[in-house]
Amino acid sequence: MTLERFVLLRNVGQFDSAAPNAQLGLTPFSLIYAENGRGKTTLASILRSLATGDPSLITERQRLGTQAAPHVVVSFQGNQLIFQNGNWNAAGPDIAIFDDTFVSANVCSGIEVETSHRQNLHELILGAQGVTLNADLQRHISRVEQHNLDLRMKGDAIPAESRGDLTPNAFCALRADPAIDVKLQEAERRMSAAKAADAIRQRDGFLPFGLPNFDIVSINRVLGRNLANLEAEAAAEVRSHLTRIGAGGEKWVADGILRIPGASEGADRENCPFCAQDLSGSALIRHYQAYFSQAYIDLQQAIRDEGVGVKAAHSGDIPAAFERSVRTAAQTRDFWKNFLTAPEIEVDTAAISRDWTAAREAVLDVLRAKAKSPLDAMVLPHEPLEAIARFETRVAEIAELSGHLIACNDQIDIVKEQAAAADLAALTTDLKRLKAVHQRFLPVIAALCTEYVREKEAKSATELLRDQARGALDNYRQNIFPAYENAINDYLARFNAGFRLGAVASVNTRAGSSAVYNIVINQQPVGLTTENGPSFRNTLSAGDRNTLALAFFFASLDQDPNLAQKIAVIDDPMTSLDEHRSLTTVQEMRRLHARIQQMIVLSHSKSFLCALWEGADRNARTAMRIVRAAAGSDIVTWDVTADCITEHDRRHALVSGYIQAADPAIERQVAAALRQILEAFVRVAYPGDFPPGSMLGHIITKSRQRIGANNEILNQQNTDELRALLDYANRFHHDTNPAWQTAVINDNELLGFSVRTLRFASRQ
């Protein structure tokens, strides 16, 4: 059963005639924000009056300046609970309220604890609880001692060389890593790279190398050439005659053919340059002229050129250069294999040379044959083609190997970068840890660790039994103390209070039963009232007194058997003096909310209410605020989320929105936000190096000084990136550019720097 909403608040406190919207209802978890003096205390008093039936709590808050009586309507379970004419029309639900009234009634008035406070507190206290242990406690203690001996022995059995500098407990707690071998190899490589950073920086990567191909198309084109105007029969007759002339005959005849024009000069016929006879009747001379034409000379030259080209591409220094490139690649791999994975270089240069020579000579033999018979059309025969095919297989193998090696250059660049920015101490620590993990799960060592872990678990189980027995025994021995003392001290511990309650007891006085207790600070008891010396009034601050009151409130609810049906109203549980207990207060209120019917929290602290809101069930929470209205106060919806958003969140959203969709209207706002985003990130990421008041340029300078050192802030790449981002952002900041408001903005440039800024501010 829950309160549903405030229907009407008229002529009470700051509320002149507030009628909140019907949609503004109270849920199982309701937050109400208001500045001081807006009406929070009035609402708490109305609810206390509803719970207790005391009309004075409302009538004494009649609105100043009006003669009309207070009129309040609250909706509960579909019914309207109405306060009118000085009374409620029906009894209210079970409501527990924490506010100033609770404090002044049960704890103290200001700094004084009076008799009425102790009497009211007595009504909150329940009887003592306790369970006991007897001889089991000593038995458990003995077993724990034996576990300690066995644990020490089993820890010593684990070899120290396997554990390194880890204790047996820390070593056995290491988790298995299925990729440990790969990670260990990588860590060792990175360590080697860090130690050889100078050599790595100076060493180049792989260079491409390969074997030349034979241009079969070009060779066949030359082999297939002949002279169309020289018939084969005539060419055969010329060759036959030249053979009869003897050695050198072809050259001699060719030279003679060239001399015919000179010998025939001035004559009306062609004469023989040797005997001056008329050549017009000689058929053989016509054959000679066709045979030794310029086309024939060109054909011979093409055959010679093709042969020269084959020799130039496949002989001379070319094979030696190839062998040198293979040796260079092997030497390069020998250096880099310690830092990365590179393919093996297994090249049989002798076999390649044999196949190469065979292919080359086979081709040259065919070209020589063509040179002897230039007019015979030929093609590369089967055997040379087979030799070339065997060699081309070698060419493909070498090309593939070269490609794999060249691909390693990307890894080499990464190794160079890592080596340049390596933190040797961190790498050493990582390598030790990985070696320990590797050793931890070796079969022999794993068996020893299993024994150690089992013994540790057995000890923990026995310690649990021992602690339970001791707790039960302590409770038994202390059964004269109220259970309330334990509950109070439990809450004080959660609130990180520097004190606790001691000697809680019940006493009978003439005025009735009363509770007595003292405050224990630094193990020293301090009385509630003392004429001289330490006492409640001079040892507890206002924040401490508020914390004690809150602990009383929570502890009293814990003892309530009808807690599940309870409605809790909490008005400003924290003061400015105990804001350091904000988190534990929020945690305890959430824990309480899970056990009761409804919780209504009123506060002037937005941050406190935001913390409660963020952890609450979305379906069970609602938030409202009390605001100034024309004639007083009114209750309206409160957008908690908007008040929980920080300026950093807004800047981040602004830049993110601009990245998604450009808006010229916000360009300058976006540009101005970049530096603030960077400052916020660096402030959080490096608080020790970037204290409040520092400039980003300061940390960039400091970062550059520490690059590569054990206390490195940012590596070289990140330092340079931060410098680049700041240089751009400074153009739009009044500290660094007096004309920042008129600095030209380019959309593409702003977009790029916006993306880079958010990426930098999100790095780990």
Q: If you had to describe this structure to a student in words, what would you say it looks like?
A:
The radius of gyration is 50 Å and the shape is elongated. It has 30 helices and 14 strands. A six-stranded mixed beta sheet has the order 7-11-12-3-13-14, sandwiched between helices. Among the domains are: about 170 residues, Rossmann fold (3-Layer(aba) Sandwich), CATH 3.40.50; about 160 residues; about 60 residues, no CATH class; about 120 residues. About 0% of the residues have low confidence. Helix 8 runs antiparallel to helix 18, helix 10 packs antiparallel against helix 14 and helix 16 runs antiparallel to helix 17. The protein is an alpha/beta fold.
Helix run count: 30
Estimated share of beta-strand residues: 5-15%
Shape designation: elongated
Unreliable stretches (pLDDT < 50, length at least 5) are: 116-120, 122-134
Compute the average pLDDT.
81
Q: What is the CATH-assigned architecture of the domain at 3-94 and 562-643?
A: 3-Layer(aba) Sandwich
* Strand line-up across the major sheet: 7-11-12-3-13-14
Here the CATH topology of the domain at 3-94 and 562-643 equals: Rossmann fold
CATH class of the domain at 3-94 and 562-643: Alpha Beta
Largest sheet: 6 strands, mixed
SS elements, strand count: 14
Question: What is the fourth-level CATH superfamily of the domain at 3-94 and 562-643?
Answer: P-loop containing nucleotide triphosphate hydrolases
Radius of gyration using CA atoms only: 50 Å
Alpha-carbon distance between the two ends: 48 Å
Considering DSSP H and I runs of 4 or more, what fraction of the residues is helical?
40-55%
Structural class: alpha/beta
